[in-house]
């Protein structure tokens, strides 16, 4: 089945959802009711798509602390509503899903139900020690379920994902090779050590060389200052923090920042 093809370099803007039902921050006095969560997601999606992002990625970013590998049904239901709202707000723009921390099966279900085009999974192959404990890849199950449910959905997989330490001793290049040739991902994501922190240009180049032609995306920390260096060997970037007001991840999307970064991407094409 055909999978989405993005412009190169592709700017994928992140829709960071506030806390969803069931998450600790949803119950706080300053938490948003679900209707307001969907309004915020819709507004961010319009700002991102309206200023030229090639695709959008929806994340349950506000659901800290995250479940390691299986989120509860209320999270999946709320995510499906949010993705449907984002798709309606950004017609014609590819939309993806990342169910944190590592519930790629739930993300696949959301894609199948909403028509979303791709998903991101933090640990597809191997294992990592994270703040949620041990997180293990489930490539065998996920690829078989994709073939059954939504074969057109593209699979973006992190190599040595942020906020984690690989359990094995493989190099970044070895991890990328396994993701492409053995876990059968469609694209590789390379991030820095944490949200908003970029990888080095050398790590992006190392991943691109090992990816055997599969596209490599920068997964964190790209901004106006480092875009040229990081995109030299990348097919694009997944950008969240740098597109928010004042560069603060908890703020709404700033259309002026999206416009400026999109212009930088266009200049590098």
Furnish the topology, listing elements before pairings:
Elements: E1 10-16, H1 34-50, E2 55-59, H2 73-89, E3 94-98, H3 104-114, E4 118-121, E5 127-130, E6 133-136, H4 139-149, E7 154-159, E8 164-166, H5 172-181, E9 187-190, H6 201-210, E10 216-218, H7 227-231, E11 236-239, H8 255-268
Parallel strand pairs: 1-2, 1-11, 2-3, 3-4, 4-7, 7-9, 9-10, 10-11
Antiparallel strand pairs: 5-6, 5-8
Helix pairs in contact: 1-2, 2-3, 3-4, 5-6
Percentage of residues in helical conformation: 25-40%
Mean pLDDT: 95
**Rough shape?**
globular
Question: How many distinct beta strands?
Answer: 11
CATH superfamily: Aldolase class I
Fraction in beta strands: 15-25%
Helices and strands, in N-to-C order? EHEHEHEEEHEEHEHEHEH
User: Number of DSSP helices?
Assistant: 8
Highest CATH level, the class: Alpha Beta
| Secondary-structure class | alpha/beta
Q: How are strands sequenced across the largest beta sheet? A: 1-2-3-4-7-9-10-11
Query: CATH topology, what is it called?
Result: TIM Barrel
What radius of gyration results from the CA coordinates?
A: 17 Å
Main sheet properties: 8 strands, parallel, barrel
* Number of separate structural domains: 1
Unreliable runs, pLDDT <50, ≥5 residues?
A: none
CATH architecture: Alpha-Beta Barrel
């Amino acid at each position: 089945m055909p999978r989405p093809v993005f412009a190169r370099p592709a700017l994928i803007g992140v829709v960071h959802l506030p806390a969803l039902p069931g998450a600790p921050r949803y119950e706080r006095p300053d938490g948003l009711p679900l209707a307001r969560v969907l309004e915020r997601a819709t507004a961010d999606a319009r700002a991102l798509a309206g200023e030229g992002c090639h695709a959008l990625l929806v994340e349950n970013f506000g659901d800290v602390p995250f479940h390691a590998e299986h989120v509860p049904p209320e999270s999946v239901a709320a995510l499906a509503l949010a993705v449907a709202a984002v798709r309606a707000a950004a017609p014609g723009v590819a939309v993806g899903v990342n169910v944190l921390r590592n519930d790629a099966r739930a993300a696949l279900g959301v894609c199948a139900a909403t028509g979303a085009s791709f998903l991101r999974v933090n640990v597809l192959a191997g294992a990592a020690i994270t703040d949620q404990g041990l997180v293990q890849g489930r490539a065998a199950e996920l690829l078989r379920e994709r073939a059954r449910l939504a074969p057109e959905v593209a699979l973006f997989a992190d190599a040595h994902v942020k906020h984690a330490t690989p359990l094995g001793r493989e190099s970044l290049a070895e991890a990328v090779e396994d993701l492409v040739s053995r876990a059968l991902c469609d694209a590789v994501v390379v991030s820095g050590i944490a949200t908003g922190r970029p990888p080095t240009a050398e790590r992006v180049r190392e991943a691109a060389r090992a990816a055997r032609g599969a596209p490599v995306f920068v997964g964190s920390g790209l901004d106006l200052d480092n875009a040229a260096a990081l995109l030299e060997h990348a097919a694009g970037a997944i950008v969240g923090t740098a597109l928010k007001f004042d560069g603060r991840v908890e703020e709404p999307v700033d259309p002026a920042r999206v416009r400026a970064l999109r212009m930088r991407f266009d200049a590098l094409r």
